[in-house]
Amino acid sequence: MEEAQKKFIILASLVFLFAIIFVHFLTPFERNGNSLVSAGAFLLFSLIACWVMFYLKISLKQLQLRINVSVKEWKVTLLTALFICLGLLLVKILAVESFFKGSPIFESSHLLNEGNTNFSVYSILLYLMFCPVQVFIVNVATQNMLLYLFANNKYIHIISTICATILFAAFHLVINWLLALSMLFFGLYWSILFYRHRSVLTISVSHMIVGMFGFYCLGYLKLFNQIISLIH
User: Fold this and answer.
1) Tens digit of pLDDT for each residue in 76-85?
2) How many C-beta atoms lie closer than 10 Å to residue 112's C-beta?
3) Residues 200, 132: contact at Cβ < 8 Å?
């Protein structure tokens, strides 16, 4: 297969993904309906991406993906995740002290609330399972595929990082716009980290740590909803 045909197939798949995102966010479903549509759409794209890689015989070596990660890279990943968590804690404390006095800093008590599906064990397990899938779609099927296709373009590392960052933020639009906006920072950080490490494992673990602490311990989703209520 010619190089032009390969590029067309992969770029068509990426266009399909972005089309799914924007059509999906225009649908009149409620949040739970949107979540199911999101899961189905992103699963479909993952299958398409796997098929493209198999059909074009693109190996992990060609994509420069790494399975073995050095101890130094693990230390950088985990220490950075720890500092991000501390930053999230500091921001939450400042937000509570300045605007939401009386609100708890930690929201982990929700985990024990029977019937609270947003913070149930099922929700946590689903989140942990979805993190690697999200990394695959954003960083492997999008960012890394662009790096592979346009390796001769001197700006492709910047372009691919921007595309991955926007895509990662777009994943969270189904919840609310403020969360998606904040995810631009995290999407940028993980895209840069992926570009340096080329490891799905380290990015997924970092994503799990930061996400679990931010959403399930500090209750950032509730905080964002409170901020949106104040704005409105």
Assistant:
1) 999 999 999 9
2) 8
3) yes
Q: Look up the pTM and report it.
A: 0.81
In this predicted structure, what is the pLDDT of residue 26?
53
Confidence class for position 101, pLDDT limits 50, 70, 90: confident
**Residue 43, pLDDT score:** 67
Average pLDDT over the chain, rounded to an integer = 80
The domain total for the chain is: 1
Task: State the number of CA atoms in the 13 A half-sphere of 205 facing the CB.
Answer: 13
| Cβ atoms of 45 and 141 closer than 8 Å | yes
- For residue 183, give its domain range: 62-231
Residue 54 has pLDDT above 70, yes or no: yes
| Residue 184 lies inside a defined structural domain of this protein | yes
Q: Could you give the CA distance from residue 229 to residue 232 in angstroms, rounded to a whole number?
A: 5
Residues 151 and 124: their CA atoms lie apart, in Å, by 38
b (16+ CB within 10 A) / e for 36-74:
ebbeebbeebbebbeebbeeeebeeeeeebbeeeeeebe
Spatial contact of 53 and 6, defined as CB atoms under 8 Å apart: no
